[in-house]
Amino acid sequence: MSEQHSREAPHLTCVECQRSLQEYLDGGLEKPESMRVFLHVRDCTDCAEELGRIEQLVALLESLPEREPPAEFDARILASVPYDSYRAMAGLRRARVPVFLEEESLPAWMRARAVRYAGTAIAVVAVAARLTGLLPDTAVTTVVAAAGLVPGAAYALQGMARRLVLALGQSGERA
Amino acid sequence: MFDRRADLKLIRRCKLGEEAAFQEVLTRYRAAIYNLCWRMTRNDEDARDLAQEVFIKVFTLLDRYDEQYAFSSWLFRIATNHCIDHLRRQRLRMLSLERDGGSDDEEAEMQIPADGPQPDVVMQRREALEKLEEVIADLPPHYRVITLLRHDQQLSYEEIAETLQLPLGTVKARIHRARNMIQQILAARKYEI
Ligand SMILES: [Zn+2]
Question: Which one of B39, B52, B67 has the shortest CB-CB distance to A76?
Answer without folding.
Answer: B52
